[in-house]
Design a protein that fits this description.
It contains ten helices and 15 strands. The longest helix is centred in the N-terminal third of the chain and has 18 residues. The structure holds S-adenosylmethionine (SAM).
Length: 324
């Protein structure tokens, strides 16, 4: 199984981490090809996609647009629709692909709109997006003309959503690796900007995660951290015993003040919170393309200020920081 990043890696040939990254990526690709039923099925679907050049690609809009309806013949359209449907659930988007509107669970343009005015321009930068999902934010970043955008997304449904979109978009310098953050060797002082959004609360050891991230950033590089928080001015933390909003892997919901102290301890400075927004059913909801439970099912029906478990309902903060 090949991967476009394996070719790009030769550009960083002498970097000490390059051979390790190559080996880990090759091992993961072999595992997907040989031992992962879902991965094999997705690869086969992608291989059968029509080889069509979209007549329009517009990445700099809320609904990322690839192609027009009339770019495809009826057979091609049917085939593409089958692949798009096989890749349900579409959590991050939305996209319009050859006239087919993929309304994802998350209206991701809302978060992008909240963070975009505060983030340093990405032109010429090397960017890492941890937990990049379908690549929605990475595609949005391209308007700034970064030098490299690298996503890591271990969950194969989301990874192959990216592969499908990139099949038609063919953006240069843009890659997603089907790896967890922890599987990425430390690319010492490599990235100018790191997006870590919707990740930290899923980490059993947030300190270890931040320690990895800081080492991969050049001094002065920018971290865009988005995470679930709890309200309060003190240095507090909610560590849910069982589930949080029906998720069984939420380990820590800090206050913004606590996030700031984690970042300081990890080696970040110029820490500022630029947004705090409660998640609303306008931003996260069930759609045709994500037909399972969503926010409204995670909240107490009689009191949507709390989750079904009785915890405070989801509120997310965007915190920016610089590597010292
Ligand atoms: C809550 S979603 C956030 C997606 C996106 N970053 C956003 O903010 O909208 C978390 C994503 O991170 C991925 N993920 C989970 N654990 C990860 C890890 N250890 N390393 C990298 N990605 C991970 C998940 O598969 C999922 O796509």
């Amino acid at each position: 199984m090949s991967h476009p990043f394996l070719d790009a890696l030769s550009a960083w040939g002498p970097a000490p981490w390059a051979p390790v990254l190559r080996a880990r990526l090759e091992e993961r690709l072999a595992q997907i090809a040989e031992r992962d039923r879902k991965g094999r099925a997705y690869s086969a679907l992608i291989a059968g996609l029509p080889a069509v050049m979209p007549s329009v690609i517009d990445l700099d809009r809320d609904w990322i647009r690839i192609g027009r309806r009339e770019d495809l013949g009826p057979g091609e359209r049917e085939r593409l629709n089958t692949v798009l449907r096989a890749l349900i659930p579409w959590r991050k988007g939305p996209f319009e692909v050859f006239g087919m509107r993929i309304d994802s669970e998350w209206a991701s343009h809302m978060k992008w709109g909240r963070l975009r005015p505060h983030v340093s321009r990405l032109n010429g930068r090397c960017v890492l997006d941890i937990g990049s999902s379908s690549g929605y934010y990475m595609f949005r970043m391209l308007a700034d003309e970064p030098a490299l955008v690298l996503g890591v997304e271990p969950y194969l449904t989301f990874y192959y959503q990216f592969v499908l979109l990139q099949h038609f978009i063919g953006a240069q310098g843009l890659f997603t690796l089907p790896l967890r953050l922890e599987a990425l060797p430390i690319l010492e002082e490599f990235f100018d900007t790191v997006f870590c959004m919707g990740i930290l609360y899923h980490q059993r050891d947030h300190r270890a995660a931040l320690a990895r991230i800081v080492r991969m950033m050049r001094p002065g590089g920018e971290l865009v951290l988005e995470t679930l928080i709890v309200d309060g001015n003190e240095d507090a933390l909610l560590a849910p015993r069982g589930r949080y909003a029906k998720m069984n892997n939420v380990y820590a919901l800090p206050t913004v003040k606590r996030v700031a102290s984690w970042l300081r301890q990890a080696g970040f400075g110029r820490i500022r919170c630029v947004d705090v927004t409660p998640t609303s059913p306008v931003e996260q909801r069930r759609t045709d393309w994500m037909p399972f439970e969503s926010l409204e099912d995670f909240l107490n029906r009689d009191d949507p200020r709390v989750t079904v478990e009785g915890h405070p309902a989801p509120v997310r903060a965007i915190v920016l920081a610089e590597r010292r």
